[in-house]
Amino acid sequence: MADAGKSIADQIKEQGEVVRKLKAEKAGIDKITEEVSKLLALKAQQGTEKDEKAGGKFVLKTAKGTRDFNPRQMVIRQQAFDKIIACFKRHGAETLDTPVFELKEVLTGKYGEDSKLIYDLADQGGELLSLRYDLTVPFARFLAMNKVGSIKRYQLGKVYRRDNPAMTKGRFREFFQCDFDIAGPTDPMIPDVECVRVVTEILDSLDLSEHVVKINHRKILDGLFEACGVPESQFRAICSSVDKLDKSPWEDVRREMTDEKGLDPEKADQIGQYVLRAGQDDLVEQLLADTKLCSSKSAVEGLEALKLFFRYAELYGVKKRVKFDMSLARGLDYYTGIIYEAVLTNQNPEEGVGSIAGGGRYDNLVALFDPKAKAVPCVGVSIGIERILAILENREANLKMRTVETQVYVAAAQKNLLEDRMKICAELWDIGIKTEMSYKANPKLLVQLQTCEEQGIPWAIIIGQSELEKGVVKLRHVVSRHEEEIERTKLADVLKEKLSAQVV
Amino acid sequence: MADAGKSIADQIKEQGEVVRKLKAEKAGIDKITEEVSKLLALKAQQGTEKDEKAGGKFVLKTAKGTRDFNPRQMVIRQQAFDKIIACFKRHGAETLDTPVFELKEVLTGKYGEDSKLIYDLADQGGELLSLRYDLTVPFARFLAMNKVGSIKRYQLGKVYRRDNPAMTKGRFREFFQCDFDIAGPTDPMIPDVECVRVVTEILDSLDLSEHVVKINHRKILDGLFEACGVPESQFRAICSSVDKLDKSPWEDVRREMTDEKGLDPEKADQIGQYVLRAGQDDLVEQLLADTKLCSSKSAVEGLEALKLFFRYAELYGVKKRVKFDMSLARGLDYYTGIIYEAVLTNQNPEEGVGSIAGGGRYDNLVALFDPKAKAVPCVGVSIGIERILAILENREANLKMRTVETQVYVAAAQKNLLEDRMKICAELWDIGIKTEMSYKANPKLLVQLQTCEEQGIPWAIIIGQSELEKGVVKLRHVVSRHEEEIERTKLADVLKEKLSAQVV
Description:
The structure is a homodimer. Chain A is an alpha+beta fold. Chain A is built from 18 helices and 16 strands. In chain A, helix 6 crosses helix 12 (about 295-315), helix 7 packs antiparallel against helix 12 and helix 9 runs antiparallel to helix 10. Chain A starts with 7 loop residues before the first helix and ends with a helix. At the A-B interface, helix 3, strand 1, strand 2, helix 5 and strand 4 of A face helix 3, strand 1, strand 2, helix 5 and strand 4 of B.
């Protein structure tokens, strides 16, 4: 916004300087990649503006912040989804689906400062609609609307945010979320810890094992604001300042609290004494002995809850993965209890760092939708799959990978055999064998065999006029190039046997 | 629109009369269900307006024309998707994904009269965007943008149309399409027939076997308009009138042609001589002998193409499923060759009849996106899964169906065993067994066992204090209620064995 008056070219020049300077200073790789990605975004913007100016010609692109997935990316995505869904099912979840847009009112007032990022649909007559911002609010709407009092559900779906995302770092305006939520009355902290267990199982199954799940509790945050003398009306505003500590240093956050939000500097300093602390159950114990903090009933309740959390985390084998981080605040309005955020901690700069999952407890959200304000306590976690995919794609960039599953290719050694090829294809489709052939009437044999090798198709059937007259066809094992003659009438049976024996 | 001046109550009254009259006349079940669904829609509208008037209170609903899928519907949907995807893979297709919205320009001018049904996003600064209307146009945009000259791809995704759908008949504003397309140069009609084969394989695999695939060819339609003396500028307009013959009688369509579109009545009558005819390759032969029609080069080309089509359809074993229907026109602008539409023909009124898949050849669409107007010939088909789901849901309405896959439930026979249950769950999750337990600290044994029976969970582990001290647990087979004692240390191995032996 501050740059609105400057030309793109000037902005690119300035950003180029920033990057050069950081490199000269041998700054951290994260800082450098962040600034490089800003530079690339500016250059892309410049390219787009140029194209648009070129005679008003239509620009061939996807909408800003969105992307296509090619077949290779789809294979990687599907493999990741399969692992994620397997984990959700291992924990007894069922799935449901909601529309991609909701009545605008459904989303209003649920996302705090982030509400400005909601995509609205044009008013074309009828209802006012918005694209879903997450899967959580529609889930709460579903529970209230269908009077569901208890469910363990998972949901995979795209959500939409009018952000200015760094696409190089796996952040988009259209992106997938994989959500797992436990709704309904429970005894304290049992499902809350299971959500962390689910996150670690998934990140482990995707070989993203170097991660930590940061936790905090809204009651501790509220209690700490109370103990530091923040007026209750300012809790949410100060909380969203604290939320910025993962990206900004304390000085900047403090300045926002005092200068922008008018907080007494002394109170801000008191907050600073707490929010920069992190630990495990040892920190919980320390704070339970802190008379100032424990002057707040809310803080004590939150700390007792985390004490129980650590005990259960030990039993579920995830304690070593958890860090109690007092600066974790999470922007969304609807959290009421524990909050989580999983971050990757490995130091491979190409894989980046940053939040890969998040969630928390939201006990009052369903009541907002219920005509009688009936509450359904909920806790859940959302896995941000785009960032994970960026890492997996990068890792597998040089691996050979099949994007089709074809088992048999029906080839002709001579001309005029199209109809025979078609009959064989139909016969193999009938018995469920994945079969292809050339769409040319008279393809060259060499080209057909090359297709098999390039596509990794394991078997080729080669037909010729004289062989057909003798009632036989050739079956070729593509990798070894070994060929054998098969009776035409036994072809289906032989293939069924070969394919069932084969490790695909 | 004509009813805009009437109150909803009046409209309901009138529509009620229409339904009563039809029933008294013993009109066709299709006509009755259609009018009943209009009545229901009016009543729903009335309900909504009442709610909205009730103190401006927020209405708890999904957006008009959209719906949630509950876990049971999701199981049915996933089973159908699995069969559809299996067929697409059997034919060698790979998959890709595109964003749910596109630049508005991408969709402009592709859908003829239906363009008014496109959802636009609000202009919140930045690009003008629209929700995708189908998967075909984004696919063509993808091919041009990535310079893909040849691909066989499938795609499952939601599309959006601001229609006034009869939701009772499985028509929605947000709905899934399952598309299969073959792009790239081929010899004539080979992939075109494979698309029909794909449709019949899918409808057969879903036990929707009573169906017919109607075909026609744009060149035959154009040739017939030419032969009947329609000016070329009116081809598309007259074509969309013909397209209405599946819903309206010839008289109404003729009136639209003459009164609304200004066609010479004599020419309309000539068109009527052709478009009401249907048959198979016999009709193709008859028309090839029709000197008037064959005065059009376009008609001859189209007829020769269908002749080849029927020959290949025979080889692919689908000829008996195909009907050459000269009234089939399909509204979309982009078709250039063969067009298809699959309809269910069974007479179970609850399952309804109507279009369940559609498609055709579109050889010029990709060129519209390519900066050098390079064409990529394409042919494809789109399966309309919502209607299929409505049928399957109706069929399975009374079947017991599991929506979770939990294999083992860890139960306690006494109080104070929460931590032991948690440890066992963690152990079983570690080895990939789908395991649940109660979220209560001290649940009643009976309630826990009831959960197992209600949810169809096959195995329960029951722990007790004295057993744990002896180093054993009880393993209960839920259906038979047979129980055996297992050494605690061998629990994981025993379960792995039981579960691998089990037919799930």
